[in-house]
Amino acid sequence: MTSSGDNVDNQGVHPQGLINTLLACSRGPTAASTTRLTALAASNNPRFWDQKIRSEQWFDSNGKPFSIVFPAVIVPLGKHSWLDPYFSLPVLKQPELKDMRTVKAQFELRTLDKSYPGEAVVCSKKAANTLMYLVSKCEKNRRADNHEVIQFLRSAGSSACDPLNFVVHTDHLFPQAGEVSREVVPEFSLEDFENTDLTWSGNVLKERFAAKKGGCSTTTSSDEKGR
Known about the structure:
The protein is of the alpha+beta class. The chain has helices at about 15-25, 35, 120-140, 190-195, 200-210, 220-225; strands spanning about 1-5, 45-50, 55, 75, 105-110, 155, 165-170.
């Protein structure tokens, strides 16, 4: 992917390194193309692939999740991009630690224009066509059972004349953010208060006060969990 802020030289030609990368992407075995589309499984598609995630996945004829690779331009300021400091969390609300587990980064992408190599442009357009085909096929199969079909492409603006762009997102960035262990607060007596010979550190706290708590801790190591 390239960024919409990338520079172009005076002749309007993209850097050769970028061109080489785009062409390599467009020629890969899973690059969006007519050939790649024929790899879709002919039946039982889409279907559930993880009982914990109640959404369906498209599969190829080998029983593996169907995927495509394609070049596109990142639109960092697009209305569907979530690239703020807290990514997908509301920007006007102080996030809670438990909410960090569901944080995702989301990117709005647009297809390549004619200033890029023709082969790469075709692959980029075929990616959009692939998604439109999948949505159309899914709509046709699900029309009778009232299942919701989530669009892969979203309007870049507010009118029907605005182009449709890709919307893709990462997995959860901090899935273990809410799993925090609490350290035991040490007992600090007046006798300890009078002792000014120590320089406090984590190790000193552990050495001097762990015994006062009977050696207990709420923190469990990975080895202890396996026993």
